[in-house]
Amino acid sequence: MLPMNVFLKAVIDHPRIEIGDYTYASDFDPPADLSGWQARIAPYIFPHSHERLIIGKFGQFAHGVRFITASANHKMDGISTYPFAIHDRERIMGYPASLPTGKDTIVGQDVWIGMNALIMPGATIGNGAIVGAGSVVRGAVPDYAIVTGNPATVVRMRCDDPAIARINAVAWWDW
Question: Would you call 74 a catalytic residue per the annotation?
């Protein structure tokens, strides 16, 4: 394996993140310590977060891919969005519970995510999808779609519906 690539399951041990076998990330400036990969790809998911990040098998993540999970949010129901509690040791632990509960972010099997793509809270990326470089994904990406842009939209499908159904039925990633 190249020194800038890492199998994420081997280096990320986090109670709110699940990563399938053989999914790897590549970075031109990898973290000095292997334990830094979690903060590199998903900096805002914490052990006390409500949401999860679920990533399938055989994923490929290019340099700069980031998963922005719901715990990155701030309260929006007051006069200010400033998170005053994070600077107060006595109130910090109660702050996460005051945030709206976010949805899980889910990435299917055999997904390729291009350089500097952002995957927003609650996004769902289907099996075999390709996310173009610099794209911002929110909502759902269908199985075997190629998406680009901000917001990411389907450019084309990699195969037709019958082929997608056959590939998903075969589920080669579970062999």
Answer: yes
Catalytic residue among 48, 50, 63, 74: 74
Tell me which of 61 and 71 has the higher pLDDT: 61
Residue with tokens 């291009």: 114
State whether residue 167 is helix, strand or coil.
Answer: helix
**End-to-end Cα spacing for the chain:** 22
The set of residues, in sequence order, having a beta carbon less than 8 Å from that of 137 and lying 6+ positions away, is 117, 118, 119, 120, 123, 125, 131, 147, 151, 152
**Cα separation, 39 vs 135, whole angstroms:** 20
Q: Over 93-116, what HEC string results?
A: HHHHHHCCCCCCEEECCCCEECCC
Structural contact between residues 19 and 12, judged by C-beta atoms closer than 8 angstroms = yes
15-27: per-residue pLDDT in tens?
999 999 999 999 9
Residue 9, CA atoms < 13 Å, CB-side half-sphere: 13
